[in-house]
Amino acid sequence: MRSLMYVVTFLAVIAAAFWAYHENYKTQAALGEAQAIRADIRDARARLAVLRAEWAYLNRPDRLRDLAEINFERLGLMPLQPDQFGRVDQIAYPTPPELPITEPVEISSAGANP
Description:
By secondary structure, the protein is mainly α. Helices cover about 60% and strands about 0% of the residues. The termini are far apart.
């Protein structure tokens, strides 16, 4: 009877150790995934900060005036006044000219080299 209690106790200890190892393994895997997700979020935030900084630089009204002053001689631009523009995305662009719609032309392959 005593040896049966030893065997049952030994099996219970083995089962508890296996369960603890299995739970520890699942926890480590979950922590690894969480760290990978945090790293992705950190990288995405860094890229977003760079994009916001670049957009703030490109959208700065002084930048347009500086470009106009730099290119005044080369392009013959007039200096811009701050009341002429607000943001870069608010600058009105000319509408493209309307082009006539023509029929498609067939290109023969007689003179082409393979």
